[in-house]
Design brief:
The chain is α+β, with helices and mostly antiparallel strands and 250 residues long. Helix content is 15%, strand content 37%.
């Protein structure tokens, strides 16, 4: 039996009893009737493909409700900062034939967003728009540091620690992942919470006047129970001071 006939039978036999009861018991919107209909109109498979998550835009995709998409008149997509509910919420209508939208308005690098996909039906009941929604979180990609801050770095491997300092990445960053490598072999790694922009590593075992490599990756605000988006990795050489350079400094 076609689904529209099932809905009509439900309205004719069950809804009419609920509506009559409402007249007897008092005013009621008969929300239980709405829930039976609307649950079937929720979208599924809401997703953010990694390749479409950028510093200034996020693309969200979804699947229309199986066997019920003919009852969707349109979608409305809303997105807001996950941790700042007082800020105005951008929204955009999407045709019922579409199942994706690229969010650009208000997207800030590194910030977490809550995206809501609202299914709208305004034809089944005349002059009565009915909606149901699904939410999912996603963070925008953070930017990359523009380089090392040599004036605040300490390359003296004869002391207890060396310090790698860098220029803060633009936009929002929650933390940085910093790696010290010998060629392609990682020696040490450290997570640094923003706004700090330096990492100290024990100098034990490090060589004077040696060319190491440093990798710095900015990470986004947390979302969906601790997930984060990583930005592009900045890589450069970090040479410790040679003995001759240390003598000149004395």
């Amino acid at each position: 039996m076609p689904i529209n006939i099932k809905f009509n039978l439900f309205d004719a036999y069950v809804a009419s009893i609920l509506y009559y009861s409402s007249e007897v018991w008092g005013f009621s919107s008969a929300e239980v009737v709405e829930r039976v209909h609307l649950t079937n109109l929720q979208v599924t498979n809401v997703d953010f493909r990694p390749s479409t998550v950028k510093t200034n835009e996020i693309t969200v995709t979804w699947s229309a409700p199986a066997n019920y998409k003919q009852f969707i008149d349109r979608y409305t997509v809303e997105w807001k900062l996950t941790y700042y509910n007082s800020i105005a919420v951008p929204s955009q209508n999407v045709a019922s034939s579409s199942t994706s939208l690229t969010l650009t308005r208000g997207i800030e690098s590194g910030r977490a967003y809550t995206v809501t996909i609202i299914s709208i039906n305004d034809q089944t009941q005349t002059s009565s728009e009915r909606t149901t929604s699904v939410r999912k979180q996603q963070a925008a990609k953070p930017t990359v540091t523009s380089g090392l801050d040599w004036s605040n770095s300490d390359r003296d491997a004869t002391t207890s620690t060396i310090k790698v300092a860098w220029v803060a990445a633009a936009g929002y960053v929650s933390q940085y992942q910093v790696q010290l490598l010998d060629g392609t072999t990682m020696i040490m790694s450290k997570t640094v919470n923003s706004p700090n922009t330096h990492a100290e590593f024990p100098s034990s075992g490090l060589k004077d006047g040696y060319r190491y490599n440093v990798k710095i990756t900015a990470r986004s605000e947390s979302y969906d129970s601790g997930k984060r988006v990583s930005g592009e990795t900045f890589s450069t050489e970090f040479k410790t001071l040679a003995q001759s350079e240390l003598i000149l400094r004395i």
